[in-house]
Write a structure and sequence with these properties.
By secondary structure, the protein is an alpha+beta fold. 39% of the residues lie in helices and 24% in strands. The chain folds into 2 domains: 2-162, Jelly Rolls; 176-278, Homeodomain-like (Arc Repressor Mutant, subunit A, Orthogonal Bundle). The longest helix is centred in the C-terminal third of the chain and has 18 residues, at 221-238.
Length: 279
């Protein structure tokens, strides 16, 4: 599992994508809520150890700070987007996930599809790929800084969420601990910080914070910190920065510790990663 650093904070651009033919993505966690809307086929979604199978017309909202991932049994086409809760404050009330189906919410689903599937926001309309084409993603950005676009997008997401069935598996305990930690690390992850530093800054005891983040995310403090640093280093490497400079800029103390963490998280060396991206 890894921490998806780009889906943190507040963003004036909404990113969404069409996943064509298949969608496989490993377990990860981020601060944004997420929506998966299945256009065709079937898709397995894991959310906090619960596995669901979506079929054409199903959609799923995933709560912020939920561990989730995707796997395609055969094939699927889907719209996937992660969005800050500032866009849809109601998303903070989701308990792990909330599911719905197009037939139960025809008006809400129709409006959503008019915007995101049929190009109503000015992006290209969805077009299925040929079955013999490799799986791929088409990525788009919507500027939601303007009031008109913001209201249209918020209305579409809010209408879908209002028609969802509630998930009865409510998270227990202090879920704010993980949110606060990730918010704090988002500012300080390149610094030589420790669990004690984070606990002191956030007003928790060291042992309590360690226990809560492990229970909520399945990751230790060093794991989360390394994930954020490695994710940040990827951009630096692709910009042409040397491995040593990228390591130090990302917060690693040595090139050796950077190599070890990078390989553990990505399954490849920094050099292999850059070479693969250039091909």
């Amino acid at each position: 599992m890894f921490v998806q650093k780009q889906n943190f904070g507040v963003n004036d651009r909404l990113q969404f994508n069409f996943q064509l033919n298949t969608y496989n993505y490993p377990l990860h966690i981020h601060q944004f809520a997420e929506l998966c809307y299945l256009i065709d086929g079937s898709l397995e979604v894991t959310v906090n150890d619960c596995v669901l199978t979506l079929h054409a017309g199903d959609y799923l909202f995933i709560a912020p700070l939920s561990v989730h991932g995707y796997s395609t049994p055969e094939r699927c086409d889907a719209v996937v987007m992660a969005f800050p809760t500032s866009l849809l404050p109601e998303a903070v009330t989701i308990n792990s996930f909330s599911a719905g189906h197009r037939s139960d919410a025809p008006d809400a689903a129709g409006y959503f599809e008019s915007l995101f599937v049929r190009g109503g926001l000015g992006t290209p309309a969805f077009a299925p790929a040929d079955n013999d084409q490799p799986s791929h993603m088409r990525l788009f950005y919507i500027d939601i800084a303007g009031q008109r676009q913001f209201i249209r997008v918020r209305s579409a997401l809010g209408a879908l969420l209002a028609e969802c069935s509630e998930n009865s598996d409510k998270p227990t305990g202090d879920t704010d601990a993980l949110a606060k930690l990730l918010g704090w690390l988002g500012v300080h992850f390149t610094e030589p910080v420790t669990l004690s530093d984070a606990a002191s800054a956030l007003g928790y005891s060291r042992n309590y914070l360690s226990h809560r983040i492990k229970k909520l995310s399945g990751m230790s403090f060093p794991d989360i910190l390394s994930n954020l640093r490695v994710e940040y280093s990827r951009d630096l490497l692709l910009r042409g920065m040397t491995v040593l400079d990228a390591a130090l800029e990302s917060g690693f103390e040595t090139e050796r510790s950077f190599y070890r963490a990078f390989r553990k998280i990505t399954g490849m060396t920094p050099g292999e990663y850059v070479k693969g991206k250039k091909q």
